[in-house]
Design brief:
single chain; 446 residues; alpha/beta; nine-stranded parallel β-sheet; seven-stranded mixed β-sheet; 15 helices; 16 strands; globular
Length: 446
């Protein structure tokens, strides 16, 4: 039985804040203690009070004056795109064909898949992210590597093998039948093992035939406890091609509706150009629209109408979308998200921003009873943040006047250097750089 005491400034959200002054929506303790035992938070409160509850001799890690928060949550990323991040292309479809698809063919190799899975979790943890919803490649080897490495690290992770049977290179396509069989085998092997969850993953309507979407729907009916992840309404050319491929569908979201691929555990990346019917249908089914600001800006796809979608009753989440996204950091993602909303006259105050990256994303995943919070009984996934981690941040920190100001500083200027420590299931994570991942010295062609 392992036991540990964490000391620091504790911050966790109890509900969505109504604005930057809504301290009733959060739990904050200026000199707080967390008692962790067997991977779970057993008690929280003033440090002296909590220290008295822990067994005698329980080791104490003092993180003062840093902020101790739940680990961050990323609701949309692509493991096979780690080596195409920062690759230039004029728009989404060109980017996929030029960079992403060639890179994904390498994931048939289990050695390569295992190496990148390890690199992914190293990078996420380095940035304070302890849970992610991830696309693997079309190869079962890719998903096997993802889940095996996550299980080894005792991480709460969600992922799935991509289903893709057209409009992609031959080495990246499966069939409706074998995508069903391979996905079902992965679900039986990994879903519910430890802290792992499976996501049924048709990449998007363009790369799946009607038969394959039928197969995805059959998987969802057979395994209703699994997640469903795909893409929706990211790019004008994508929307036009979807309409051509599915001419009888009322709109893009109607394609997924037809095959039963909606609901509270269905997360749709992007959702930038939804019509009124799509917004209403998504709200009625409880489906989740995922905001991917750095990717939307990088690929020039459009801007996410957060206020409009939420006014229509949609559930929302926020994510990096690696590798169309340009940073593994949820801090950088919040910063760019803030700017995207500012351009539309919409506001995301600092409390709401950090709520979105923790409890908000946990609620989008239906996992708020396990992650995204420092509540007693939650899994002890924790990130410790230093709002004065760099000289520029330290200089600005001298003039911070409130918790909201401090969070906004962390969001605006912070990155992996602001992450002082990470705990997964109650144990500290070694986030030092790993050998074998240094830059190649090969000559670059000009």
């Amino acid at each position: 039985m392992t036991s540990r005491l964490i000391r620091g400034r504790l911050l966790s959200f109890e509900d969505r804040p109504s604005g930057p002054d809504d301290t009733a929506a959060l739990f904050y303790e200026s000199d707080g203690g967390l008692w962790l035992q067997d991977g779970v938070i057993r008690a929280r409160g003033p440090f002296e009070t909590i220290a008295a509850k822990a067994p005698p001799g329980t080791p104490v890690t003092d993180h003062r004056p840093h902020l101790v928060m739940p680990g961050l949550i990323d609701t949309h990323l692509h493991m096979p795109q780690m080596q195409v991040i920062a690759s230039w292309a004029p728009a989404l479809l060109e980017w996929l064909n030029t960079h992403t698809f060639p890179a994904e063919t390498r994931f048939a190799d289990p050695v390569h898949a295992a190496r990148i899975a390890g690199a992914l979790f190293d990078e996420l943890l380095r940035h304070g992210t302890t849970t992610a919803l991830a696309y693997c490649s079309v190869h079962s080897t890719s998903a096997e590597a993802f889940f095996a490495e996550a299980a080894r690290r005792r991480l709460c992770m969600i992922g799935g093998k991509v289903m893709m049977d057209r409009n992609a290179p031959k080495r990246l396509t499966d069939t409706a039948e074998n995508s069903f069989d391979e996905s079902a085998a992965l679900i039986e092997r990994w879903h519910g093992i430890g802290r792992l969850h499976y996501a049924i993953t048709p990449r998007f309507a363009i790369t799946s035939t009607p038969s394959q979407l039928e197969a995805a729907g059959a998987l969802k009916r057979r395994y209703p406890e699994c997640y469903l992840q795909t893409h929706l309404s990211e790019n004008a050319a994508e929307i036009a091609l979807t309409a051509k491929l599915y001419p009888k569908a009322a709109d893009y979201f109607a394609v997924y509706e037809q095959y039963g691929l909606t609901g509270p555990k269905a997360l749709f990346g992007h959702c930038l150009h939804l019509n009124e019917r799509e917004r209403s249908a998504m709200a009625e089914t409880g489906s989740v629209a995922v905001f991917c600001p750095t990717s939307n800006l990088f690929l020039g796809s459009g801007v996410f109408d957060m206020d409009g979608l939420e006014a229509a009753g949609l559930r929302t989440a926020i994510a990096t979308d690696i590798g169309g996204g340009t940073s593994y950091s949820m801090l950088r993602t919040l910063d760019e998200g803030y700017k995207v909303l500012q351009l539309q006259g919409q506001r995301m105050d600092p409390l709401t921003a950090f709520y979105r990256a923790t409890l908000g994303n946990a609620r989008a995943l239906g996992l708020e009873d396990r992650i995204g919070t420092l509540a007693v009984g939650s899994d002890a996934d924790i990130a410790v943040f230093d709002p004065a981690a760099t000289p520029a941040m330290a200089l600005r920190h001298e003039t911070v006047g409130s918790l909201a100001d401090e969070l906004f500083l962390l969001q605006t200027l912070g990155d992996d250097r602001s992450v002082a420590a990470v705990y997964v299931a109650g144990d500290p994570v070694d986030r030092s750089p790993k050998p074998g991942l240094t830059a190649s010295s090969e000559t670059v062609a000009i």
